[in-house]
Amino acid sequence: MEINTIKRIDLPDFLRRHNSIHVTDGKAQCPFHPPDKNPSFSVYQNDDGTWAWKDFHPDGGRGSIIDFVVLKDGLAVPEAIRKIKKLEGIEDRPAPARTTKWKIAATYDYTDENGKRVFQKIRYIPKSFACRRPVGDSWEYNTRGVKAVPYRLDKIKAESRVFLCEGEKDADRLAGLGYPSTSAPWGAGNWPAELSPYFRGKAVFIVYDVGNEAKVQKIAAELWEFTKQIMILTVPIDRREADVSDFLDKYSSAEDQRAAFEDLIFHGLKYEQKSTEQAGVFVGNLEEFMAADIAPADPLVDPFVYRTGLSIAGGVNGSHKSFFVIQLGLHAAAGKSPFLNCPVPRSARVLLIQQEISVPFMQERLAKIRRAESFDTHGRFVPITTTGKQLKLLNVKDLDQIKKWIDLYQPELLILDPISTFHDIEENNSREMARVRDVLNKLKSVYQTAVLVTQHFSSKRNPKDPLAPVEVGGWFRGHTTLTDAADVLIALHRLHGQRENTSLARPFEDYNEVQVQLRNGRWPERFAIEFDEDSFLLRVSDVWHELGRKIVPEQIIALLHANDGEMRRTDILTHFSQLGVSPVTTRKALDETVSQGLAVREQLIGKGSPVLIKLRSPA
Description:
Elements: H1 3-7, H2 11-19, E1 27-28, E2 41-45, E3 51-55, E4 62-63, H3 65-73, H4 77-88, E5 103-111, E6 117-125, E7 128-135, E8 138-140, H5 153-156, E9 161-165, H6 168-176, E10 181-183, E11 203-207, H7 213-223, E12 229-233, H8 244-248, H9 254-266, E13 269-270, H10 286-291, E14 299-301, E15 305-306, E16 310-315, H11 321-334, E17 350-354, H12 359-372, E18 381-385, H13 396-409, E19 413-417, H14 430-446, E20 450-456, H15 480-484, E21 488-493, E22 511-518, E23 527-532, E24 537-540, H16 543-547, H17 553-561, E25 566-568, H18 569-577, H19 583-595, E26 599-603, E27 611-615
């Protein structure tokens, strides 16, 4: 059987079943260096579907499932292959006899800037295509690892205007009439991002087949930042898949064909980039800025997600992050207000791409939620599950797939859950995390969508004070490059100090305290939520009242309002002490009220250095 078939066996599943190695988020304890307290063994899937592993120890190896069995069991390669086949129940079967006789109709050489062949595309009869690259005196029938280049690159590199066709046949046809022409190697629907820089500074005339208008628009958007002008030429033939060669075939002489094509150029439509491409950009002086007609912030769920904003929701394992974003998405799609205690002004299109929950479990979650509560989404909520092939934001092909879904469903809210599955980089590396941040920022600005991602909390805490309060962003795992870019941070905390409280109505793990930080400096009130195991729904909890002795800033503010906006700190302590609250708890609530900017401290002159707590005056 083909070796690549073996290499495509699900390696995490194989390791779990036959070696008791459990892979989590692509990491596992290294079987070659026990005990491996900090998992240094990674497992990942390549673009071609094969699986691989890497041991990050200085003397560590790497390779496929075959290499793993060779190293782990001390076998030769043929023996390792036989063992894998036996374990997986794989039998070699003869390849079916080929009944179709394929004939090469044409070959097209793709070259670099100097005319050296990079790879060759083959057109067969019956119509099909294949690519092969030169290896010595023979061919290898794949282009894995070969950089994408435009067709006839050496001929168009110095041209100021270029005609971009759907296929090589059309490009050759126009080149025969004297027009500098090219095409992409994999058709209209697969434009590799690395092709765009080759068109820098050129005027590009896009000539694609009838019926591919949407794909043309996508290619034009990809080229926009590199070109000085884009024109779209429409072939005047009322037949799907008619191309420019069909158009030219209507004219007998080359002179007539050139005249007809010049008329096509004259009637071409200039591509104007959508204004949304420049969303979030303003250039001008202060007076121009203040006079500009700038649309106000568009909250989809206030204050959690805003149109064209980046929101990050995080918590420890088991803090119901996925349930939080699923339920938020359903409320947004249905325009159902409130979500928890937050308003949903209108309905919005929502695209959820999640890569952690299997397809059956995802369906079970949604079914259970919808049985418990009605959400009239009318097709505005699109859940996509990709656990079988996790997409990576920094992989060109994977990002193109995500963009295709965005183009198809036009979401106003894009949810990626969890963000750690959308990259393979070191999360504590600021430069690497900046690449993820830049992709997210581009998605939200180019597509005018809110982006909401989930992220895990860090397991590291200050050893001197593990429960010390920190800025919201300080709880999230990885370098702060990502959280610093967020417009909204949503932290789902466990109830502080209540793990052993037996009087809670629900298990401790069912509760979370919601803390939100906005870029504009406002800190909405904290509140508690609880998870209902029967409905899979999160609801606002009255656990603060159940705990009795928990003091939150809202209680401080209410007390200040009742006393003309100011009170001495000692009087506040006395007030809550009479309610059975310890001074330490009250002081923490006062500190939190001041840190959120809801009140200010003022040092008074007098015995004991009294402190006055005052409501902050509105700006």
